Amino acid sequence: MKNKYLWIWIVLVLVLPQLGWAEDDGHISNTFGIGPRAGFYKSKGAEDGAWYGGIQARLRLGSVFGLEAAADYRASEKFKVSGPGFDGTIRQHSYPVTASLLIFLPIIPHFSPYLVGGGGYYFTRTEYSSNLQALGFQDKTHSIFGWHVGGGLELPITSHIALNADVRYIFLDTKFGETGSTSLNENSRANGWVGTGALMFYF
Q: Is the model's pLDDT at 195 over the cut of 50?
């Protein structure tokens, strides 16, 4: 039954744009858009993934190339760390600010797959459990630079509105910290997968 409803939603998403915009060529012709976005991310070394939300803006440079800027809030992830003589947990949440290059592949009307790549800064809050604090680790706020690559799909609904969804892999340096002879940077990895969906309004 769940699979049945899933297929109904997929068909609606693919068919409604065709019905509402059949008279045009099906590609966004305006140059600038902005809209809310949300998604789910899972760092490689985290216990569980978490949701995030934010806003993105896209500048379309013709039918093929585009630029994207985005700002998000990523909810807290928990990492378990251990080593000779210690164990504990780390929680991190961040505010990523990223920029990307988009390459659209306008194969047919109402169907625009794209490739995406770029980078940005992740303004991150790192919080340590009490047993790690006893070793000298103190909660901190810092910035981490990371790269991302991926691909997605944009579905225009009208000449001014579009939905897009993509999956990206984030290459993010792990900076859990070190003190004395104890380093937490090799215990867990903060890079991982991000899935995003957005509603865009083009002007």
A: yes
